[in-house]
Inverse folding.
């Protein structure tokens, strides 16, 4: 990797700080994809009214993006390891930008959903390669810091998404939330062409495992649909069918991967305890993070009585504290290893979850903000060192597929966090109300004759159980973080690549 893509001249390839230009280029993609996740949610009610469609239909604007992104991340990572990371990362910028433009001009909800799928393909190409490009550009002594900066930028982008989205919708209209990606995308494509290192293809010509990939896509897609539907509809025959299909096709995928020469996911990577435990704890952490971000608006608006605008403001301590802590955490892990910071982060998250078990209708706002800050700090301490450890344990020629697996497990964690928390809340609300002699309504805070005290009691009972589950998961993640054995399988290769930039 001695030449810079587009500029092989020694002036560009010999710059000692060129790695920071590479990081800035990657951060453009991180900003665009993270901003898009939070900014679209604000526009859902407006888009529903504009297209005059049902809530279930407009929900696919978010769901289609989420499913596409999750199921294709390992595949895009595999392609990048075969064809070159820079090439696919740049193509991801182009696809995401085109998809954003099509979303902006969408004449119907169906067209918008299809355009969101295209957007998700671009986002997947970006996410599967971003961490791999960072790891290739930075030596092990700075890897955690660089990944921490990326995490901070993503957290800030997600936190300002609702504010930016609300302002654009009020001033211009919902289509502007997609057009805002166009200048970022154009600058990103230009920067990728001029700055990112030349793509490195696999040393050996490899083939794509099409059958295994198809089984994986069907299996994981069915799992995502089943888990997502379970959170809203419970265990209906349709949901059970989705889960059964997921089990069958994921089993076929595993059977296939163990027998093909060039698997989509090399299961040998999971023999490395650091890689396996890092992905497991990463999934658990995102379950907790997104479970809390899902439940807290209901608590703040329905129990504490805050308006939607204030609720959004009260939630900002989580991403902002993550953004502040993440770079420092990554830097510390570079010096002392990942175990200290990942364990400390999960301990902090455990304390936050423990405190939230006792939330009530009279909890003062300062205490709620403090608890959210503790959660955010814990996640900020945990995530960059954990990501750095995962990528450090991956073989150099499989960095992109490792990055795809990393982002896939985190995405699955967020899906599980929202769906399972929603299901737990609904079940325990019903148990509470049944004990009081009331049938469980679909919405306990509207359209029924249940006294306010019992509504609060039902919701808080469900919230308590959901938080107990999250506490248990953070404790498990803490134990797993302590048990990790530090390994630096990638260091020598990373340093070689860095010295060649």
């Amino acid at each position: 990797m001695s030449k810079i893509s587009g500029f092989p001249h020694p002036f560009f390839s010999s710059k000692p700080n060129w790695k920071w230009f590479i990081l800035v280029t990657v951060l453009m993609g991180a900003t665009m994809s993270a901003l898009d996740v939070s900014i679209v949610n604000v526009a859902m009610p407006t888009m529903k009214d504009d297209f005059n469609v049902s809530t279930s239909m407009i929900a696919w604007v978010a769901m289609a993006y989420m499913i596409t992104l999750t199921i294709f991340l390992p595949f895009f990572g595999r392609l990048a390891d075969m064809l070159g990371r820079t090439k696919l990362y740049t193509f991801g910028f182009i696809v995401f930008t085109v998809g954003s433009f099509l979303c902006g001009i969408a004449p119907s909800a169906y067209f918008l959903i299809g355009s969101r799928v295209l957007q998700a393909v671009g986002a997947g190409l970006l996410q599967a390669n971003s961490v791999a490009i960072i790891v290739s550009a930075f030596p092990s002594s700075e890897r955690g810091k660089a990944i921490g900066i990326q995490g901070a930028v993503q957290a800030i982008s997600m936190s300002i998404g609702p504010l930016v989205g609300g302002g654009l919708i009020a001033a211009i209209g919902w289509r502007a939330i997609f057009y805002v990606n166009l200048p970022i995308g154009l600058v990103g494509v230009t920067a990728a062409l001029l700055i990112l290192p030349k793509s490195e293809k696999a040393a050996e010509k490899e083939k794509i495992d099409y059958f295994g990939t198809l089984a994986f896509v069907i299996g994981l897609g069915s799992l995502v649909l089943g888990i997502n539907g379970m959170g809203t509809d419970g265990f209906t025959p349709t949901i059970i069918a989705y889960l059964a299909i997921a089990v069958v096709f994921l089993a076929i995928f595993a059977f296939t991967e163990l027998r093909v020469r060039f698997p989509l996911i090399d299961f040998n990577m999971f023999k490395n305890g650091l890689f396996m435990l890092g992905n497991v704890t990463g999934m658990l952490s995102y379950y907790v993070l997104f479970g809390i971000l899902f439940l807290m608006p209901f608590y703040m608006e329905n129990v504490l009585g805050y308006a939607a605008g204030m609720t959004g403001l009260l939630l900002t301590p989580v991403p902002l504290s993550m953004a502040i802590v993440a770079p420092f955490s990554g830097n510390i892990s570079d010096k002392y290893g990942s175990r200290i910071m990942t364990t400390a982060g999960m301990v902090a998250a455990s304390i936050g979850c423990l405190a939230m078990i006792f939330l009530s209708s009279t909890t003062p706002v300062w205490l709620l903000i403090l608890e959210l800050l503790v959660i955010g700090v814990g996640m900020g301490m945990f995530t960059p060192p954990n990501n750095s450890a995962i990528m450090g344990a991956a073989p150099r020629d499989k960095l992109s597929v490792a990055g795809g697996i990393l982002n896939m497990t985190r995405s699955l964690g967020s899906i599980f966090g929202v769906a399972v928390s929603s299901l737990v809340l609904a079940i325990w609300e019903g148990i509470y109300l049944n004990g009081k002699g009331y049938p469980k309504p679909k919405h306990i805070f509207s359209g029924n004759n249940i006294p306010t005290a019992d509504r609060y009691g039902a919701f808080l009972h469900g919230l308590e159980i959901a938080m107990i589950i999250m506490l248990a998961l953070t404790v498990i993640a803490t134990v797993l973080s302590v048990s990790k054995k530090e390994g630096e399988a990638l260091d020598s290769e990373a340093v070689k690549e860095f010295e060649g930039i």
Q: What stands out?
A: Residues 1-14, 488-501 have pLDDT under 50 and may be disordered. The chain has three domains: 1-207, 209-261, 269-489. DSSP finds 18 helices and no strands in the chain.
